[in-house]
Design brief:
The chain is α/β, with parallel strands linked by helices. It has helices at 16-27, 39-49, 63-76, 105-130, 151-154, 160-180, 198-201, 205-213, 224-236, and strands at 6-11, 31-36, 53-57, 78-84, 142-147, 185-192, 244-247. The chain has a single domain (6-246), classed as 3-Layer(aba) Sandwich (Rossmann fold), CATH 3.40.50. Helix content is 45%, strand content 16%. Strands 3-2-1-4-5-6-7 form a seven-stranded parallel beta sheet, with helices on both faces. Strand 4 (78-84), helix 4 and strand 5 (142-147) form a beta-alpha-beta unit. Helix 1 crosses helix 9 (224-236), helix 3 (63-76) runs parallel beside helix 4 (105-130) and helix 4 packs parallel to helix 6 (160-180). The longest helix is centred in the middle third of the chain and has 26 residues, at 105-130. The protein is globular and about 55 Å long.
Length: 256
């Protein structure tokens, strides 16, 4: 399929997975809106790619902010796609910590808000815009790709909040695909394992070796472009719908 004349909004589009997705979709002919909060990184990426790319500062939990990104997409062409990859917050806490204190409820709520509520907010607002389009010959109007995590299946110790948020995205996938079937919008999710994002690369060699040790094959971290390639395929393959696809080298998180 051709992305010519079509537009994708990528939340978290200046980060590791998001930036790789922006680059890949742009190379495939799509116009892309980088929806992010990181002015410096997002502006640099937009300047690097040049034509058919715009940056809109976007808070996924703010309706007006998300709508501004969608409106910019409509200026660039036909908004048919959204890829939701935003992140940037995390806190490791056990339900009862070593000092006897309970998990901070505010930390749990903030994690759920960003990774689950923020994902839902972009999904609902983008889908409302895509639903206004005339369908293609196939009957499809567009597609959305969300980002879960293998932590949504087997969260490690200290990942109660993150695991719950990403499990929520898993549960959201099939229900939203069914909801949106009547307007010809497909919804799929990607559940990455340990990916070689800039943040992950910054944890140090010892921690990276620990992560790599329980990845059966290939025995390395996943590359952001491998995530992006899967995201592109999920947009292109019109019979993939309601699926959550792991990309993890057969990695399964142990309990810690």
């Amino acid at each position: 399929m051709s992305f010519e004349g079509e537009v994708a909004v990528v939340t978290g589009g200046s980060g590791g997975l998001g930036a790789a997705t922006v680059r890949r979709l742009h190379a495939a002919g799509a116009s892309v809106v980088i929806a992010d909060l990181n002015d410096e990184a997002a502006t640099a990426l937009a300047d690097e790619l040049g034509d058919r790319v715009a940056y809109v500062k976007t808070d996924v939990l703010d309706d007006d902010s998300v709508q501004a990104a969608l409106d910019k997409a409509a200026e660039l062409g036909t908004l048919r796609y959204a890829v939701i990859t935003h992140g940037g917050y995390g806190a490791l806490q056990k339900i009862v910590n070593k000092d006897g204190s309970p998990h901070d409820r505010a930390v749990f709520a903030k994690t759920i808000d960003l990774y689950l509520v923020g994902t839902f907010n972009v999904l609902r607002l983008a889908s409302a815009e895509i639903a206004k389009l005339d369908p293609k010959e196939s009957g499809e109007r567009g597609a959305v790709v969300m980002t879960s995590s293998i932590a949504g299946y087997e969260g490690q110790m200290g990942q109660a909040a993150y695991g719950a948020a990403k499990a929520g995205v898993i549960g959201l996938t099939i229900s939203s695909a069914r909801d949106l079937s009547s307007v010809g919008i497909r919804v799929n999710s990607i559940a990455p394992g340990t990916m070689a994002t800039p943040i992950m690369k910054g944890v140090g060699e010892a921690m990276l070796a620990r992560f790599t040790a329980n990845i059966p094959f290939p025995k390395r971290l996943g590359e952001p472009d491998e995530f992006a390639a899967l995201a592109q395929h999920l947009l292109e393959n019109t019979y993939l719908n309601g699926e959550v696809i792991r990309i993890d080298g057969a990695q399964r998180f142990t309990y810690r």
